[in-house]
Amino acid sequence: MSKSDEGSVPPDTREDIMEATFRALSEHGYSALRMRDIGEEMEMTRQVIHYHYDGKQDLMSSFLEYIIDQYEGSVEVDGDAPPREELEARVHQCLFGPGFEEFSHWDRMKVYHELFTHAQNDEEHRAIFNEHYGRIRGSITEVVEDGIERGVFRDTDPERAGQLITDIIHAARGRKLSLGHDDAPEQAWRSIDEFVVDSLLADAERSDAERSDLDGSDA
Amino acid sequence: MSKSDEGSVPPDTREDIMEATFRALSEHGYSALRMRDIGEEMEMTRQVIHYHYDGKQDLMSSFLEYIIDQYEGSVEVDGDAPPREELEARVHQCLFGPGFEEFSHWDRMKVYHELFTHAQNDEEHRAIFNEHYGRIRGSITEVVEDGIERGVFRDTDPERAGQLITDIIHAARGRKLSLGHDDAPEQAWRSIDEFVVDSLLADAERSDAERSDLDGSDA
Question: Which residue range is the domain that position A17 belongs to?
Fold first, then answer.
């Protein structure tokens, strides 16, 4: 077990270290980052970092949980709207979520996407991202399930629909960040609405037999 | 203009250098990569690299074009199938494309996704990825256009549909690589088929008035 587990770091100290890590990461990128770069972003002595964290790996895992908590905290939505509106509200939170402290949603997402790609090579980060991914997908899946129960959406695998929407959100953010497509998030919602929501809504009005006639999707 | 422009590197030499770069990148990752790591993967003296390339940035841009050419080369498909089958063939090529030399499709894609994320910080790589993205999206868009012209798909913006499908492919690959979801590519095609192709096919059978009644997507 690492030193940083079980809340042993006082909240204010953790916040200072995490924000310093964020600034250092934004400046240097993940692979080039050294503990001393983080120390230089702090007002406290950098011995504080070494006191609370067992090196870069431990600090980075804690940081990953920190930005994921911020992201997920931004996706809380009141759950009483009709399914399409509820879906829109949640997707918008994921795509356009608010900034925190001095950094914007997109500053956060830039670091988030860099760590996501880096998880290719890091089992611990992969495990943290997988738990997070499950929660985000779950929040979307829940709305689809509710729509099916209320007879507004057709009967389908809600988890597959939730996964598809989560993937579209992720890809649109990546396209904005890596390719500079600033309209990608807005396009993503319009595509989710035109294709996914359309398909969920439309088929509730048609019989199963008619549907499998039309699309042959079981072939 | 860099030394590597206009085909001045003999093809066999370029191939050797590119494959050495690929091996070194797979081992060290992009940010930690030094020119000498690439030299160590080559049979020829590493002076050959310095003779043909102006440093790491020039070499990496050339390498990015090399792996993109391989990827795009794998997406060539005969264009005479019905639109849904044609779409399936192209999406499958993007998701499961063949390996080259000693590396698999996924070894290639791992490096590709790392460079994609790094393009956040690199204008030259961003420009190369944008051209590539335009071609891949174009190859999907073309099939949607053809389906609309033949009356098999409903009337919609084919570029938006092409973009959505391209995004879903990209996200599924990223999920397999970063989160270890080995079934993500297979799920991606099933989702594209169930939702996007379903929506494209189904609405061709319904009137526009009925459609806007059902989904209210112009709201």
Answer: 9-53
Q: CB-based contact (8 Å) between B180 and chain A?
A: yes
Domain count, chain B: 2
pTM: 0.86
Q: Do B160 and A194 touch (CB under 8 A)?
A: yes
Q: Phi, psi (5° rounding) for residue A32?
A: -85, -5
CA angle, A90 then A93 then A99, to 5°: 165
* B108 and B53 inside one domain: no
Residue type (1 letter), B52: H
Residues of A in contact with B120 (CB under 8 A): 110, 113-114, 177-178
Give the tens place of pLDDT for each residue, A49-104.
Answer: 999 999 888 999 999 999 998 888 766 666 678 889 999 988 988 888 765 555 67
- Closest chain A CA to residue B133: A179
Q: Judge if A119 and A186 occupy the same domain.
A: yes
> Count of residues for chain B?
219
Q: Collect all residues with Cβ–Cβ distance below 8 Å to B204 and sequence separation of at least 6.
A: B151, B152, B153, B154
